């Protein structure tokens, strides 16, 4: 990430159309892709949980959902700052922005469902079904990017220095996303094992039912 930051600050030139704010693009695009990828992990884990009712898949879904919300938050913040500088307003109800906001809200609600329904297997089943449905917004975001008219720039001319900076950010953000999911998953599994030793259902949140 240090190399990526140096590449953007020093090596990548200022884009002629958007100016210095364009440098947010190097973070914004990788974060967007990794939001989709972490959401995909939630989807796969939810499907696997419904197929076998194994606690490990519920733990993975919960862990990936937390990272999806984190990535989505950074995605929305970088987007609104770009909007303010480029369009003179913090928000515009374009299809891409609307579906991106909906995606973030869907996974926030997913996390909120966990303590509401309590530490039971029924909660895990409900969360798994919801996690599958929530992922349906990801193709909607993709289709809005490629098929619907939008205020977003549809194409940016990138120099070789810009491409290298983008590659470095993709690598670092993807590694960070994977590391965050893995570390959160390890902590969640530890909590699950502690509950299992007591003969209780092992929810991916604290003993009092609050998100850990």
Commentary on this structure:
This protein is mostly helical. It has one domain (23-147, 158-197). 75% of the residues lie in helices and 0% in strands. It has seven helices and no strands. It has helices at residues 2-11, 25-52, 55-87, 95-117, 121-135, 137-147, 160-197. α2 crosses α5 and α4 runs antiparallel to α5 (121-135). The longest helix is centred in the C-terminal third of the chain and has 38 residues, at 160-197. The two termini are 28 Å apart. The model is unreliable at 206-212 (pLDDT under 50).
Key words describing this protein structure:
212 residues, mainly alpha
Layout of helices and strands:
Elements: H1 2-11, H2 25-52, H3 55-87, H4 95-117, H5 121-135, H6 137-147, H7 160-197
Helix pairs in contact: 1-7, 2-3, 2-5, 2-7, 3-4, 3-7, 4-5, 4-6
Overall 3D form: elongated
The low-confidence runs, each spanning 5 or more residues with pLDDT under 50, are 206-212
Q: Measured on Cα atoms, how large is the radius of gyration?
A: 19 Å
Can you count the helices?
A: 7
Largest sheet: none
Number of domains: 1
N-to-C series of helices and strands: HHHHHHH
How far the N terminus sits from the C terminus, by CA atoms, comes to 28 Å
Instruction: Determine the structural class based on helices, strands and strand pairing.
Output: mainly alpha
- Determine the fraction of residues in helical runs and give it as a percent range: over 70%
Q: Tell me the β content.
A: under 5%
Average pLDDT: 84
Write down how many β-strands occur, each being a DSSP E stretch of 2 or more residues.
0
């Amino acid at each position: 990430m240090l190399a990526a930051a140096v590449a953007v600050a020093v090596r990548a030139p200022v884009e002629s159309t958007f100016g210095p704010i364009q440098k947010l693009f190097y973070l914004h695009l990788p974060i967007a892709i990794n939001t989709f990828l972490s959401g995909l992990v939630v989807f796969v884990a939810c499907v696997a949980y419904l197929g076998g009712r194994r606690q490990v898949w519920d733990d993975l879904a919960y862990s990936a959902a937390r990272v999806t919300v984190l990535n989505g938050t950074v995605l929305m913040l970088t987007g609104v700052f770009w909007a303010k500088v480029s369009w003179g307003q913090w928000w515009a109800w374009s299809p891409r922005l609307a579906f991106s906001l909906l995606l973030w809200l869907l996974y926030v609600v997913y996390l909120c469902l966990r303590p509401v329904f309590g530490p039971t297997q029924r909660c895990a089943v409900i969360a798994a079904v919801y996690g599958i449905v929530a992922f349906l917004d990801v193709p909607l975001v993709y289709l809005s990017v490629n098929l619907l008219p939008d205020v977003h720039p549809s194409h940016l001319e990138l120099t070789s220095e810009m491409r290298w900076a983008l590659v470095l950010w993709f690598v670092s953000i993807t590694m960070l996303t994977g590391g965050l999911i893995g570390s959160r998953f390890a902590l969640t599994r530890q909590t699950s094992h502690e509950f299992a030793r007591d003969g209780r259902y092992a929810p991916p949140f604290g003993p009092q039912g609050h998100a850990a």
